[in-house]
């Protein structure tokens, strides 16, 4: 992976973020570098270093995170994913 995660977190949290990136690559026509870049952009200022913070991350499945990050939470992608445009990148 050329682009590195820039999110502070426990090993468990970072592993989960890598799973989210892999899910994004499976769901959307993007590279792993773009998936990691999108995660960095969305979550760079978050910390997943305490059990409570890690639970916030683990509360949603990887595919849900992938779609939130790709489309944006404000997009309401869950209502009409087919008609939703992804957030521009970079």
What is the N-to-C succession of helices and strands? EHHEHH
How many domains comprise the coordinates?
A: 1
Total count of strands: 2
**Beta-strand percentage?**
under 5%
> Measured on Cα atoms, how large is the radius of gyration?
13 Å
Sheet having the most strands: 2 strands, parallel
Structural class: mainly alpha
- Specify the overall morphology: globular
Straight-line N-to-C gap: 17 Å
Regions with little confidence, pLDDT below 50 for 5+ residues: none
Count of alpha/pi helices: 4
Mean pLDDT: 94
**Strand ordering within the main sheet:** 1-2
In percent, how helical is the residue content?
Answer: 40-55%
Structure description:
It is a single chain. The chain has one domain (8-83). 52% of the residues lie in helices and 4% in strands. The protein contains four helices and two strands; from the N terminus they run βααβαα. The protein has helices at residues 11-27, 32-43, 51-58, 62-71; strands at 8-9, 47-48. It has a two-stranded parallel ribbon. The longest helix has 17 residues, at 11-27. The protein starts with 7 loop residues before the first strand and ends in a 19-residue tail after the last helix.
Secondary structure: elements and pairs:
Elements: E1 8-9, H1 11-27, H2 32-43, E2 47-48, H3 51-58, H4 62-71
Parallel strand pairs: 1-2
Summarize the structure.
This protein is mostly helical. It has one domain.
Notable features of this structure?
4 helices; 52% helix; 90 residues; mainly alpha; globular; two-stranded parallel sheet; 2 strands
